[in-house]
């Protein structure tokens, strides 16, 4: 039960959908001051079907009770999620929607609502989900697993229950980003210096940040980045922020994120509190011609075997996350170099690989980095692994992921046994047959 329960709690934060309206709605569960509506159970049930993670309505309700219990205990234990984290998640979700639907106009036509309206509608849900995840992380934060534990986990699996590993691939890429011209930098610098002059003339820094900053995580807070420890921010930003006097404003500072105007509010030992206004180039206007020509020439040298792909990636790739590893792309869940060739893969990558043969390299293809930068990349199809029964030798990282999940589930189950005694839980008689948490597992707490 708890393996399924754990997976439900960790489903991606919210999925915007256009579910059929529920005619009859009422409260079906209460966890302290938090309520669960019948319509919410129905929607999670439907979403599970849509995402190929089918669950029963009992399991849907149980997972929602778990989330509410985590949130209720987080409130008791002062485990808080900052508004900035919520805004960052909301912004990321909106960007995903824009990529999925093509542009904002398509989203408005699909949902009949603007991005801002969608954000406001789900803000509290996102905060609750993040709080539940943070509490779950706190419960299991000290857990570690050894190679021997992974081995014992695998040996306990019955022969006929050893998991089937789907088709996996190993991929690598070399990225080159479009360059920002001096004229574009000068234009942004002049705008920032104008903001500085306006602050010195009496306007409030935070008001200008709210109006002009292009940092979605801090904009609504007047550019406030809260306290940061040394080494937490990019070096260019930190070097300036820690030298400024309280309330002093910097000149223009350039980093990988764009151009900043920084105001340090306070420095305390190895910590500092600053705010900023960030301006970023319009990456859609950047010319990728030079980047494409460069990768064309690199690809030619690799195909001629004048240089190995791995060496070329280390020397020339501008993707810092993969550069040192020779351009190898890692599975975001397991951290393994083997990626499942299925719908969980980035769509553009999936459809590109689907037309390739192992050992080949693509021509330069359009690329957009996680932080929105424009460029091109070449992709190397390094290897393909056929579906097979899991083995320790070939699938250690994936088995390690399963083993640590089992260990987390055990720890979380122990926590639930204690938490249900501290938190009031009432379930509607309609769901009495679901036996939430199981009477043999949890004592006290749950009432019908």
From TrEMBL:
Boundaries of every PpiC domain copy: 166-266, 269-372
Any matching Pfam family: Rotamase
Annotated signal peptide: 1-22
Region span, Disordered: 314-334
UniProt keyword annotation of Isomerase present: yes
Keywords in alphabetical order: Isomerase, Rotamase, Signal
GO MF, one annotated term: isomerase activity
PANTHER family recorded: CHAPERONE SURA (PTHR47637:SF1)
Listed name of the protein: PpiC-type peptidyl-prolyl cis-trans isomerase
